[in-house]
Every structure is written in structure tokens, then in C-alpha cells.
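HUMAN: Now follow C-alpha cell order:
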Amino acid sequence: MVKMPPPRIRLPRVRLRPRSIRGRITVLVAFLAALLLIPAAVIGSLEVRKTLSDAVWLDSQKQATLTAAAIRVGKLTDPIVPSVPGIDLVQVVAPGHHVIAASVAARGLPAMTGAWPTPRDPTQDVQTCAQPLIGCVRLSAIRVHAAGDSPVVYAGRPAPTVISTDGSDLLFATQAAVLILLAIWAAWKITGRILRPVEAIRAELAAINVNDLSSRVPEPSGEDEIVRLSRTVNRTLGRIENAKQQTEQALERQRRFAADASHELRTPIAGLRVQLEEAQLHPDETDLHEVLDRALNDVDRLQRITTDLLLLARVGAMAPMALENLDLTQLVRVEISRRADRLAIQSRLTPGVSVNAIPTQIGRVLNNLLDNAQRHARYMIRIEVHRNGDYAELAVTDDGEGIPETDRERIFQRFTRLDTSRSRDQGGTGLGLAIARDIVEAHEGNIRVEESPEGGARFVVRLPLAEPT
């Protein structure tokens, strides 16, 4: 029997690293504060100790100096009375280390040290433990004068084994702890305030969904990195929204193309099928030339409708880079010269009117408007080109029946015909004005219809003027 290894017990991993940026920054600040303040507190405590130690030497030197001055002026007393508090061990020692005077605390003691200052170095600081009776002492030895037989003054106090700095140590430790805690609190508060806009950006982004991309994240004032981030996020959201709108428009164009094609192509296809089936069933009673003529007419109509529908589908996807500087006045002259219409066209053209456009598409707009005018005019058609502010205006006027004000928007819809008494062949495909509107709007312009002075219709196309070169 094979023994199975005992199951391994996995202990939960303890995550020491904070998850949030705010927590990480706070921990880093705490670490740096401790790294700086703890050594500073230790150094401060050591400096206090050194200062206290130096103070003992200074007091000893002061007392030794005062005693040497008293000897020089002949006012030495025995016993010597120390005048510096804390310095109670004072001796005056003659050459040969013979004590000639001493303070009460040093009376009866031999010379406390063998140190003997020279004329070149008249002062020495000494710590010695040579006298068991008084233990270790800190002394200052000062030569009274430079003569060879000059006595030396020793002044000092017992050296403490440990200088008591508990109070200062506690003070430095408390200061370091308080400053570290203050740094932690300040880092937590400041990073929280700095990162608050980031949290607002995150919350706003989390609330945005694909159905509504119009929302934008708040943009704080200033020019720092967070402000630039919010602006970049808003620009990105704007690009995503534009891409979504373009995608939806493309899908809508596809749906409209399918709907229009299925709606408008059904009738000529059905008519063509009926004619062919009738000719097939009654070949002897069918005039072949008449059937072929009617079939070709239906095929021509199918071709025109298909061409117009494809053009409508392409207009919305027009690339901006395809635009070029176009002399609108010259384009009108050329298009008019190519036409052979039943009515002559009057023209009022301002020279040098230029726009940024696709020439073939603007030519299609012009011909659609002229075709519409030729179908409805009685005796007169006039075309005008001129500037109006920052726009170029192209106007086509006729003296036909005119268009009722209630129908002036509807005529730009697809497959709209106001004259129901006309046949389809006379009325066109019903897409001419819809194509004209879509092309003009794709060029950032607009088209409207109004009543002409002659009583007919006046179509006005407005396109932005090209920048002067």
C-alpha cells in the first residue's frame, strides 16, 4: 500500500505592503522620518553629554585660574575656599610635588596627580584615579607663573561614572516620536487631499457605461500631473464617444440602405418580372421591341436608384483628407456648359468664390438642384454664387409651383415626392434632394428652401469659405 504524503498546510500570506498609494507614501514618509529623526535624537543626546562633560572641565579651569591669581597677588588662604560651585578639590603644589595649601576636601592628601604644566603649556586637563581615597577625579592643572620654581594649582571634582542625562534623553526621544507621528499624520492627510481628484476620476470612470459616453471626469484647476491626467482622460472619452457615434452612424446608414433598397427596388423588379413572365406565357401576342424597351427603362431606373443609394451610403464616410480647394464659381460655369436642358439657365456668379470640398460631390449637388428646377420651372431658372460673411452661397431659383412651408423640411427626406400625380419616371428617384443635403452637411454646410421672388422655389446651399492662401 502506497502511503500518501500528508497534505501541505498553506498559511495565509501576510501582506506587509500597503495596497493603496496613500498608504505606501505614508509608510515611506514614516520610514524616512524615523531614518532622519532617530539618529538626530541620538546625536543630540550625545552632544548634551559632551556639553555637560565640558562644563566640568570649564569649572575646574575657572577655579584653578582664580586660585593662581590669588597666589600672584599674595591673597592665598589655607585652607583654600573654592569659589566655583561643585569644585571642592583644590591644591597648590610646589616643585617636588609638595602640597603647600589645599581646600578642606583635599587637606591631608598628597598631590592629586603627577601632571606638571610647562612654561610653554601652562594649562593641562587631567583625569586620574591615582588617589584611592577620592577615586577618579577630573582636574585642571595651571602653572602660576613661568619661572622655574613656579607652583602649580590643581582644581577639580570627583569624576562621575555616568553623567546623568535621563531628562534630556527623554526629551529628545519624545521630540523624535512626536515629529515622526506628525510626519505620518501630515503625509496621510496631504496625500489624501492630493489623490482626492484621482478618486473622483476613478468613480466617474466606473459610472460611465457604453450607452452614455457623454460624461466627463472633473478637471481640477492648475497645471499639475493630475490635472493633465484628467484632461487626457476627457479627451480620450471624447474620442471614444466620437468613434461610437461614427459607428452608430455607419450602422444606421447600413440599415437605411437595406431598408431603402428593399423598399424602392421592389417595385421596378416586380414590374420587370411581370413583363418578362407575360412575354413568356404569350409569346405570340407580345411585341418583343416594346417589352425590351420597357425592361430597359426599368433596368435604367434600377441602376439610377442603386447608384444614388450607394452614393448616400458613401457620403457619410467621406474622408476629410479628400477635400481640396475648389473654385465654386468655375465649377458652376463648367457644369452649366455640359447640360442640355429644356430651359436656359440664367447665372449671376461672383468670381473667385472658393470652398474646401470634393468637386465631384459638389457637382452632384448642383446637378440635382438643377434637375429638380428643370422638372418644376415654367419659363425661368436662375443660379447665383456669392459670398455671405464666412460662407459661400449657391442658390438655384425657379418659377414653378413653389413648395409649401410645411413641406420644406420633408422634401429632403428619402423617396419624398410632393407631386403625386407625376409618374416615377418624370419625378426621378426621389433621392436627389436627400443626396444634396447629405453631401452639403458632410462639408459642414447647410441647405434650405425658401420662396423665390418669381413665386417658385429657391434652394440655398451655404458652405464655409476656404482659407485664403
Notes: The chain is about 45% helix and 15% strand.
